[in-house]
Amino acid sequence: MLLRILSEVHSRLIARWEQLAQIEITEEPSLEQLFTEHMVCMLTRECVNLLRAVLNISDSSSSPEEKKDEPTCFITSQIGQDLSVVDGVVALSFFCLTCRDATSAIRIIPACRALVDIVKNMLNNGQCEEGVAVFMLVTSIQSLQVHGSDEVALGPLLSLVFHVYYSLRKGCNSLLRVLQQVPQCTQETLQSFDSRIIAMIANNELVVEKVRREIIKKLLRPLIALSVGEQHKRTVHLRQLPPLAKRVKPLVDEDFTALALIFNSD
């Protein structure tokens, strides 16, 4: 039953967002266009609330990524037991991550992190295919292309990409091939990044959140959407100015005849 609900909600969300993308937005959108966009965003946010409830993500937690210790319902405890249900929850959650609604994307991030941990355990037990991990990484990177210009969403999304690669790299070698498609990323840079992540995993290194974001931001910079200020930033061209001429001190003919009056003995 849960799988059928997830599939139906997923298909309806896809249809709604595709319909919204086909609407031509003029300089001053009509009330009907604004209402349609608002309703699609509200539907997506309600779907996010459903997923957070299913995965037991609480708004009252001290951290947005913190989960309760004990599941509150039977569905939550059984999600990791059925591969088809996991696939459905992953597909719907990561789709909400790429919808053009920053509020939905930010609120679904804790659910996506929880799903990464579930898939990690399933990969270690041989119960899940690498395609799920690849889908998670690709969709997380796509979210940077959609919401990278939002300063509030950029940081958590960078952390999510790092969490996906860090958690699933050991059990999925295909993640490295995904990053090989990043433009302007040399093979040396990619190998250095991958070796660093593998060393962190082997040493169980505790990485500060700021460092995680900087590592991913440096690697995926060509894919991150520019902020509004950077989009309209005007290129400044500085021309070479001629050097300033040195001021030459004029030569003055010194006259010492007046000194003769002082020392004149007459």
From TrEMBL:
Pfam family, one: Exportin-5
Exportin-5 C-terminal domain mapped to chain residues: 1-225
Highest taxon in the source lineage: Eukaryota
Protein name: Exportin-5 domain-containing protein
